Amino acid sequence: MALYEHVVITRPDISPAQVDTFIEELSGFLKEKGATVGRTEYWGLRNLAYPIKKQRKAHYSLLNIDGPAVAIHELERRLRISDDVMRYMTIRVESHSDEPSAVLSRKERRRD
Fold first, then answer.
1. Is 19:59 a contact under the CB 8 Å cutoff?
2. Which of 49, 97, 98, 110 is 20 to 30 A from 7, alpha carbon to alpha carbon?
3. Per residue, what are the HEC states of 14-72?
4. Buried/exposed code over 53-69 (b: 16+ C-beta within 10 A; e: otherwise)
């Protein structure tokens, strides 16, 4: 099985609780397909680099996935159909890092 990092950008008009529920549904779907979701991170409501569907902000989420390519293809198919998803990106990686992502570590540095 291969390792993937998957980032999902969802609409800004849904609540963070709905984003968490959506990510939990994706995790459950991946488990059904034989994949495991290691770590999930909610990066929050962030500004977009350019407007997408007339929106300037969106909810960002990261999933670390270990699973077969078939599960990833089916996940991407479901995300294309979903009205809540604005964009997504899946990248195959050699290994998952145990440290927080660059986005979360930058947020923590600003708080200190």
1. yes
2. 110
3. CCHHHHHHHHHHHHHHHHHCCCEEEEEEEEEEEEEEEEECCEEEEEEEEEEEEECHHHH
4. eeeeebbbbbbbbebee
pTM of the model: 0.86
pLDDT tens, position by position, 4-57: 999 999 999 999 999 999 999 999 999 999 999 998 999 999 999 999 989 999
76-106 in b/e form (b: 16+ CB < 10 A) is eeebeeeeebbebebeeeeeeeeeebeeeee
Strand arrangement, sheet containing 2-10? 36-52, 55-67, 2-10, 85-93
- Residue keyed to tokens 């670390």: 64
